[in-house]
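For this section, I looked closely at the sequence of one protein beside the tokens encoding its backbone, which the following lines show:
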Amino acid sequence: MAFYALERLTNLYDGYCRSYQIVGRPLLLVQQNGQRYLLLNQCPHRQMPLTRATLSGDFIRCPSHGLRFNLITGATADGCANRLQFFRLCYDGVTIGVNL
């Protein structure tokens, strides 16, 4: 595994949502309610990108179909059995990243 730096911690804020392509994987780094999440940049419903998703409370809303997924559990109450796929975030000094 190798560490891939994503962002400096000082650049993160609630509502932060940025996409990355790391080792061929589309990833989305999100900060909401002081918590940081790294997830596969695909809606579990129909695999559409979540890059332009909206954040509200603990939820991320797919811009393509409007389904809302819980950022803590990855689940939705909107009728989709699939969940968000999360990746573990790692820290290196003042940088947040991922080991892949």
